[in-house]
């Protein structure tokens, strides 16, 4: 780093000040590098679907297809890539709001089991299309959690979407229970898993386990970055464990729990 500060001094204080300045400079450089990388990634990620849309639209315009079936395939590609593009723009918009600290959260006491039921309801159709079941179990008398219900829907749908996307056979199971440190939520699948060496990076923006994986499966590479941001903004934590070819498990903890549960009697 060319901004390195060197101090020849016997004084420990000045030495540690120099160290602190060097550390700061190093952090700043890292921020710059990651921002540069982020913009390079955005340009690349946006260009890819646009290239598809452009290419297939032109092919249709020039009647480059051999059959009606082929024409339908081109239209499907254009549609899917447009959806991907629009999802990506939505995700980028969310992330930029989070970066600027401008995301507004409607924090209130929420029954997370109700939120999860809604999210499962929205995902179950996609799961069934792949022949996957979603098992769901929730502990009785789960207390309310202090969070934003709509944002939690987004978090749960993202995790369920990934579980469905990266699982070919078996099942997805969702469990919710309470421990001393808060409410726990686990989303587990029996899918392709993630290599251990890659686990630390999967919450990074645009990070994909295999570059080709996401294209084939239709993701944006931004989902988990958003999930982690949203969970942490609401005071929660998320961690992942996975075994290649066996499956993946995401576990969330929400420590801000109501003292007494208000659901339960009506269960
Ligand atoms: P994507 O839109 O590509 O799914 P995410 O940020 O949601 O992006 O996830 C990042 C990467 O982590 C994915 O591309 C995939 O390789 C891996 N991944 C996420 N969830 C799972 C899962 N349940 N099983 C296996 N791999 C997963």
From TrEMBL:
EC numbers on record: 2.7.13.3
Location of the Histidine kinase domain: 41-258
Subcellular location: Cell membrane; Membrane raft
Principal subcellular localisation of the protein: membrane
EC top class, as a word: transferase
Swiss-Prot/TrEMBL keywords: ATP-binding, Cell membrane, Kinase, Membrane, Nucleotide-binding, Phosphoprotein, Transferase, Transmembrane, Transmembrane helix, Two-component regulatory system
Reactions performed catalytically: ATP + protein L-histidine = ADP + protein N-phospho-L-histidine
Domain HAMP: 1-33
GO molecular function, one term: phosphorelay sensor kinase activity
A GO-annotated cellular component: membrane raft
Mode of membrane association: Multi-pass membrane protein
Keyword GTP-binding: no
Official protein name in the record: histidine kinase
Organism of origin: Brevibacillus gelatini
Residues represented out of the complete protein: 208 to 474 of 474
């Amino acid at each position: 780093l060319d901004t390195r500060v060197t101090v020849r001094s016997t004084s420990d204080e000045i030495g540690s000040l120099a160290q602190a300045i060097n550390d700061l400079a190093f952090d700043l450089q890292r921020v710059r590098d990651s921002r540069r990388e982020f913009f390079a990634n955005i340009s690349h990620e946006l260009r890819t679907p646009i290239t598809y849309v452009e290419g297939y639209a032109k092919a249709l315009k020039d009647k480059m297809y051999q059959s009606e079936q082929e024409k339908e395939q081109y239209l499907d590609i254009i549609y899917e890539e447009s959806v991907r593009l629009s999802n990506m723009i939505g995700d980028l918009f969310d992330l930029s709001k989070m970066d600027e600290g401008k995301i507004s959260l409607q924090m209130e006491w929420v029954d997370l089991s109700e939120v999860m039921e809604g999210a499962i309801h929205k995902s179950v159709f996609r799961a069934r299309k792949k022949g996957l079941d979603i098992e769901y179990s929730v502990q009785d008398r789960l207390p309310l959690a202090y969070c934003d219900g709509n944002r939690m829907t987004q978090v749960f749908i993202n995790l369920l979407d990934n579980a469905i996307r990266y699982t070919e056979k078996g099942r997805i199971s969702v469990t919710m229970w309470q421990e001393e440190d808060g409410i726990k939520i686990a989303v587990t699948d029996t899918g392709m898993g993630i290599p251990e060496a890659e686990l630390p990076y999967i919450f990074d923006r645009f990070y994909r386990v295999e570059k080709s994986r996401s294209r084939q499966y239709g993701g944006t590479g931004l989902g988990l970055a958003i999930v982690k941001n949203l969970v942490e903004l609401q005071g929660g934590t998320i961690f992942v464990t996975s075994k290649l070819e066996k499956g993946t498990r995401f576990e969330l903890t929400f420590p801000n729990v109501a003292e007494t549960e208000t659901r339960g009697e009506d269960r």
